[in-house]
LacI family transcriptional regulator (Nonomuraea fuscirosea), 694 residues
Amino acid sequence: MAAVTLKDVADRAGVSIKTVSNVVRGVPKVSAATRDRVIRAVHELGYRPNPSARRLRTGRSGLIALAVPNLTTPYFAELAQHVRAEAARLGLTVLIEETMGDAKEELRLATGVGADLLDGVILSPLHVSLDELAPVTHEIPLVLLGERGYERDRITADHVMIDNIAAARDVTAHLAGLGRTRIAAIGVTTTPSASARQRLEGFHQALHQAGLTYDPRLAPAIRRFDRPDGLLAMRDLLRLPAGVRPDAVFCFSDLLAIGAQRALYEAGVDCPGEVAVAGIDGSQEALYSTPSLTTVIPDKAAIASLAVRCLADRIGSAGPLPFEVHLAPYRLVARESTEGVRRPLPV
Amino acid sequence: MAAVTLKDVADRAGVSIKTVSNVVRGVPKVSAATRDRVIRAVHELGYRPNPSARRLRTGRSGLIALAVPNLTTPYFAELAQHVRAEAARLGLTVLIEETMGDAKEELRLATGVGADLLDGVILSPLHVSLDELAPVTHEIPLVLLGERGYERDRITADHVMIDNIAAARDVTAHLAGLGRTRIAAIGVTTTPSASARQRLEGFHQALHQAGLTYDPRLAPAIRRFDRPDGLLAMRDLLRLPAGVRPDAVFCFSDLLAIGAQRALYEAGVDCPGEVAVAGIDGSQEALYSTPSLTTVIPDKAAIASLAVRCLADRIGSAGPLPFEVHLAPYRLVARESTEGVRRPLPV
């Protein structure tokens, strides 16, 4: 039996081959009615796309990878959704990988090893260093996400990030502006992390601008940006003697802040009356927290769009392109956990 | 320049070709030291895996898809992590797809259309019906996740689920056992959903067993199992007159319950003093909620293991296999949102 072709499907559905190709590749720009007709024709004829045809024809798989530390971190799940949407617009399919923050795994993904079908990689690194990435980035088009703070003349890949120093400075200044004077930071990590370093830098700058002194007892070390670490760090802070105990906490992620809020709840400490809490990430979980969490919302759609378009340019380019750093916008949203006024969420 | 082969890498690293292949495919059973040596050899020689070699050699890509409604739903992000871990054990790579609950998209994924590289698909359907799936499931090995309640003689794919009727019955019985008599259900959907139907069935059974009468005013319709819908439904329930207003709410997902808890917080209603709340999913977010959320925890590792092994059997089988339904265990965990005793989380 001769193989059923795209043209057979197009004839049966009464549409162009291009339209069938769009439906088969999942490109969303086809109307629902046309899509139904194509899918029906695909079933009636028993058409199966040819696995190798596309790559043989174009030299490309149309597949890119998005590698994030952890999909159970709401920030990354939300970001992945934006990346998939933007990729679909360009006819690209996204393979989502989790590195679990493992530097070796990050390096493996950056080199494309183990991913023999990919046209390119978008990587949000946690622990792999620039020195490790430098020699390998020429093997596969690569875009890095997140706050690495590379010097422009040292970067060896495109880079999309928000200005984390400024964002951390804004949050801390917000807490100081509320009259809080013993502001703690939860997010200094036991292993080197560029995000932690940059956020701590912004924290320092804002303390200085507000005329407050940095107290290392108010910056406990944590391992990871997750709920349990926020809970344990806040419990420790609550054990500090009166006069040292913080009246506000800037957590370097929403999950840390959720954990900190839980510690306050367990201890019967009023938030924000006794201790104000702020995070960074802008997850929906933060909005629904009780009290709702003051946080920095990076523009995830902009980050995704910049990253995918950068990668697509690099994949489509015949020659080498200069590496660039793209800054995406963010905004600070003040909510109940710092402002104290309980009000219904606008839904 | 002759292409660098697996054998060249193996010689350089002083390991077997099989070991190089395992490292390159990301199979985690190689020691860290050996893996480092292989990765170094890969870089030194500039080895790139041959995109088509594996498929040409075995007829398989080693790639399976996991299609879930939404990765920003913690349950699915956590499940995806388990599926990836189990697949890695079998040397399979997982392509994660989001359907956003779109029936057409679910059908597309079930048929393998648009996914021309896959050996098989694990699909957690929300809205596609059995009638739509029945004629297409022979085109690609398929395992379905979640509570569809198919009759065994009608199923046309392997199926992995928990007993949702029993789970919903357990939660409702727990609320009734606390002496609550006006128990509401948030989760009846405006569009048909098998999960909602089964959980409502368990809810009915438990009410009946407890000698309570079902009051349709206590089962408001929602669109989706997410936070905003839980918030809006709970706000409506709180507007009911005294005597009708619920003293407990069983939410058909943790996200709905988080939204319901938020509505109680906004209204200054004590949880669980005035209204007890329970969910289903067992996400970490539920544990960190204030109060911590009573919920049903499906054994996600078991679900993932059953699903991946089922699919691998089907991919590896020369002939047709009978379709099976596999039940995974679950457990009900009572917490502050129903029991009222505030205590530190065990971390």
Observations:
- The longest strand of chain A covers residues 63-68.
- The two ends of chain A are 56 Å apart (CA to CA).
